[in-house]
Every structure is written in structure tokens, then in C-alpha cells.
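Database export, one record per block. Field names are fixed; values are copied verbatim from the stored entry.
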Amino acid sequence: MAAVQTETLVDRAAAVLSARRLADADTPAMLMVSGGSDSTALAYIACELRERGALGQLAMLHVNHRLRGEDADEDARFVAQLAELLDVPLFSCEIDIAGEAQRTGENVEAVARRERYLAANEALESLCLHAATPLADGRILTAHTADDRVESFYMRSIVGTGPGGFRAMKYRNGPVVRPLLDASREELRAYIAERERDGAPVACDDAGCLWREDATNAHTDRFRAYVRHEIVPRAKERNPQLLEVLGRTMNLIADEDDMLEDMVDGLMAGHVEALGDEYDAGCVLAPAFGAEPLPLRRRAVMRALQLMLGRDARVETASVEAVLAAFDDEAGGKPRSGYVANIQGDLAVSANKRGVRIEPMSAYRAESAGRSRYDRLQSDSSAMASGSHAPTDFDAPHQASVLRCHRAMRLNATVLSNTCASSQ
């Protein structure tokens, strides 16, 4: 394990926060701490950053997923010791992740991630209230490293990804900030070991370890563990500087991704309108939307669907393509009148000369029923005026494409403890 100068690592974290305008001395920061080496290092580094004036008031959050029995309980005890050692308030809660996954039919890891961030946002709200700071100014700090980012890059290379996916991880995503994204896991472990050698206060578990190890991280039947232990080591054999090289590559991708997202902001403002105050009720894409460059349209549709479904929902590629297909590229991008598609399980896409509408299927059916009654009355009136009393049948819009996709359900699952307990 290579030695790392403590000051250098903390300097780099401070530089990331400053250069990317992620936080400052007035920023309350909720540290997500599992007890592993990365998050343990984050706790120590964040305290040094606070002393330097690079961060504001701190608190820690530990979530016990109740997946690993006594080991999980020992993780919680270790984090409690760490918080007491550093004199940082601790929020802790337990969540029955396995039970929740069984109830919803979702992947355990996806449920665990969602519940962690629900708890983190709740804890951050409490911290900001205590610090008399607007919630929008608070941050959730995670210990994601350069290793995590490279692993995500390879995972997405294997299963595929959408626009911007190969940037792998953002330094900031909403309130979530990743100040250690340029540091390696090896550097963070060396930093903790150096603290102990220098006589600085460190937490230890019952076995004398400076951090907790999750044995399941070595199980290569899990996708990330497979990439971590089978693919990344082989890639490093060909290029020992893999983390730095891929990190630079992903930052180049991120720069271009940010530029495209800024362009999408303009496209959304000019050609996409929500059907209500928020996107929950759906949206309408103006006819001129279809004439915009395809890469921007694809990103805009992805964003609109994400706003409708919720940040944690998975937007299917087939759903994006179904919305784009509502515009006729051979006709200059005009909407295909009569086009109807079913996406994400319960969203309807319909097109006419006024644009393309995306809305819950129930709203579409209600509106279609209303149109049907209106058209039938109009048809009856025309028939009576012409002397013919036989009503004509309503001609339903032609369903050009019907796509049945799994719906990623938005769920506000209940955390077992009604409120996270804070220990000062």
C-alpha cells in the first residue's frame, strides 16, 4: 500500500469542492458513512475540511440495511464510535431492505440505494433546520472514489447506457456531492493508516481494524464485485495508470455532456410544456420539437420522462424511442397525427398537428372517451342534417406503435424508525 501525504489528499478534496463550487464554509454537510474504508476516510477528511473553512456544520448518517445480521450491527457500532471520536452528530436508522424488495419485487441493491438517499435527504433537512440554512444550500457527501467511477464505466460498457452515461459519476448530482472522486481506494486506506501512525485519533472495531469490511463485496456473482475483481485488475495489467487515464476521459465526456445538457435547457424552455405546475400530469412537445437535432431531442425526451416518473425511476430506451417515433423525420419532423403508444407500463404518447402529448394512461383514456362522445354527436348532427339518421361509428386513432415496458414504480417506502435518531 503506497504511502500518501495526508495534507495532499485533503488538499485535493478541498480543491475539488472549491474549483467545482460544490461547497464552502457555510455549507451544512451530511456525510453518508457505512463504516467501510472509503466512508471512514471521508469522515476524517470532512472534519479537516471543516477546520480549514471548506465545509460548514457536519453530521453523519448510517443506514443499517439489516442484510448482514450481526456484521451489520457491528458496522453501526463502529460508525457510532467514529462519530463520537470526531464529535460529529450521528443520524442512524434501520431499514428492512430484504422485506421491502420482496414486497415490491425490485432488486435488493436498487431498493437499498433508494432508501439510503431517502434517509439522507430526511437527515439533511434536519441538519439544515438546526444550522438555520436553506435546504437548497445543504449537501450530502458520499465517499465514491475513482475506483467506483471506473467500475461504473465498465458496468455501463457491458450492459449499455444512455446519453451521458459514460461520464459514469457526477461530482455533483442535486444535493449529492462526491469530493473524493479523483482519489483511489488505495490512497484513502493509506491515509487512514497514516493517521494511526501519526498518532491521530482513529476508530477501531472489536478486532482492531481501522474500518469495516463487507464480505459480500468479494462475491463475484454480484455485478459490481465481478467488475471490481475480474475486469478492472486485468485492465490495470495493461495500463497501471487506468484510474487516472479513464478519469480524464470521463471528465472530457462530462464536459461535452454538460454543454449538451445546457442546450437541452433551451430546447425544453422553447418546445416542451408541462400539463400542470409539475410534470406529474405529463407534458406536450410542440410541433417544432421534431425539427431539432436528434441527439438533443433524445436527451430532452429522457429528461421529460424522468421528471414525470421521478429521479430514481428507470427510463426505458424503448420508451424514449417511442416518443421520438411520434415525429416524422421524413416530413421535416412534423407530428404523426393519430400516432399512439403505451410506454413505461402506464404512460400514453399521442400525436396530432398540435404536437406530441405524454400523459398517464388514465388521463389519455378519459380524454379519448370525451373526444369519442363529441365526435359521435358531431357525426349524428351531420347525418341528421343530410337526412340520414344512421349514426356512424367512431374511428379510433390508429395505434402506430404500442410498446409494453416495465414500469419502474415510484415508491415512498417507510423507514422502520419513524424518524432518524440523532445523538449529539
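Remark 1: Residues 257 and 349 are 27 Å apart (CA to CA).
Remark 2: The first strand starts at residue 29 and ends at 32.
End of record.
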